[in-house]
Amino acid sequence: MLSPRTSPTRDIVSLDGLWRFALDTHAGATPWASRLASPLEAPVPASYNDLFVDTEIRDHVGIAWYQREVRVPRGWAGERVVLRFGSVTHAARVYVDDRLVAEHTGGYTPFEADLTGIVRPGTEFRLTVGVDNRLTNVTIPPGTVTTGSDGRDRQSYLHDFYNYAGIARPVRLCSTPPTFVADVTVVTGRDGAAGTVDYRVETAGEAADATTVQVRAVDETGRTVAEAHGSEGAFRIENVILWQPGAGHLYGLVVELTADGGTVDSYTQSFGVRTVEVRGTEFLINGEPFYFTGFGKHEDTPVRGKGHDDAYLVHDFELLRWTGANSFRTSHYPYAEEVLDFADRHGIVVIDETAAVGLNLGVMGGLTGAAPTPTFAPENFGGPTRDVHARHLRRLIERDKNHPSVVMWCLANEPASNEEGAREYFEPLVRLARELDPTRPLTYAAVMFATPDNDLIGDLFDVLSINRYYGWYVFTGDLQAAEQYLEQDLRGWARRFGKPVMMSEYGADTQPGLHSVWDTPWSEEYQSDYLAMYHRVFDRVPEFIGEHVWNFADFQTSAGIHRVDGNKKGVFTRDRKPKTAAFALRRRWRGLDGRRPGPAANG
Ligand code: GCB
Fold this sequence. Notes:
Protein name: Beta-glucuronidase
Organism: Streptomyces hebeiensis
CATH topology of the largest domain: TIM Barrel
Bound molecules: (2S,3S,4S,5R)-3,4,5-trihydroxy-6-oxo-oxane-2-carboxylic acid
Shape: globular
EC number: 3.2.1.31
Keywords: Glycosidase, Hydrolase
Strand order of the largest sheet: 25-26-27-28-29-30-31-32
CATH class of the largest domain: Alpha Beta
Structural class: alpha+beta
Strand content: 25-35%
CATH architecture of the largest domain: Alpha-Beta Barrel
Number of strands: 32
Number of helices: 8
Largest sheet: 8 strands, parallel, barrel
Family: Belongs to the glycosyl hydrolase 2 family.
């Protein structure tokens, strides 16, 4: 799905701002049919949970309603009018006046409603959105809703971040011509000093068959560097400037749809020329071995929850640069498109993850990992869950395929890959991902219960991403034992599969301001020592290709005795203040430029 962009033939009106807001329990039977009678207003984009001092809203399970009036620009007569949501978490029903115009499930990907002929340029309509935050066995991520004896619904889930809900990303009203560019795919390669570009353009609308497609690549100054004709084709960019980690050089592919000598539609798709490949136990970007330094992150900030915020976007990337991080994983769901656009422009490498987190009932078994009931059984996560997972994977790849920053797809976080049925569950998903995008390697983040001996799916993937907490959940406070187990474990994965191995999670909860001269869990020193121990091990494992600390910043979780106002494994606090470990990471990572740290680099 194309990102909304203005062009000589396309306009955009932002619908961000304050909308009327009410929970379904206060909204009447048909909230879309008239003005929402509620004193509350909620900002878009933002999660609604933390905005109000009201536990009924914070812990709400079910539907919440958003509403506003929208005026269609009068200049849009004869144009196609499209309403586009960056995301609504987790499901949406969209009404224009009394009419249902869209339904969408999946809280982290965009969707559109074509309003052509439904709304009239120059007039106003009432836009109402029902937002459903319920998670079940057949949603991704999954969850369970139970009704208590007090009649209240409660939501439980298997992932360790708060189930924020709402209209979390920008909403836009867009115009396109009635015949339009519907999709663009760009795949790049290299031939000596030249870049090779294969492209495909899909067109739609009444007169699509009568149009011809022309494309030209422009550099950052707007100069045309290559041209081609036809809806599918290839061209070369001589003396290409590559997209590189740390230097996000971009070109624009200007796609023009013409008929009878006139322009019907035009759309510019940005792209970067780079290659990605796994060879042996190396991860190559532009043919050079790349070593990942960075974090698993979250879209999580005070008050806004998972709402997209450009100020935090800029500041987070600034802190990544300051720390010497060259990459991050979009744990545990696809992030806002604005984030990936920024990563493209600034040369930050991204591992792009689906929202499939929590496909693991073993987690309920605590540290034994013994699932109380088999994860991949039909009554838990069977065919219907996998179908939804496949649909999400498709949406992710369709959305993010043209981002040069995205170098790998992560199909799931901590699935029960050690349990029977895992292979049957994942084989078709891996096949689908490779069909949709034959160019990018695939990975999944392996849970602690999945070991080199019992994992059933590692051979299907290209990179082994391992989540481990030796020294935290196990061998708590005993870094010496933890070091031994960690090394055995990582060497075991490398030996069994002969593939590159990276650490996709390692971290320790840390209370800022707690200091200790001992190996005291929760202290700032322990977090630093814990990371330094992992780094010693990484530097001894030849197949090792990268380190992503869990987590970039503290983040909110559901309440529980294991969490003190959320997960505190951040190297930065939730309001982005550095803990001691941030300085240690900076010492290790700065100046590496994607190369593996030398033996003296332990920090
Ligand atoms: C994990 C999960 C992550 C949690 C983390 C933790 O393995 O992938 O979502 O937040 O552990 O801190 O327990």
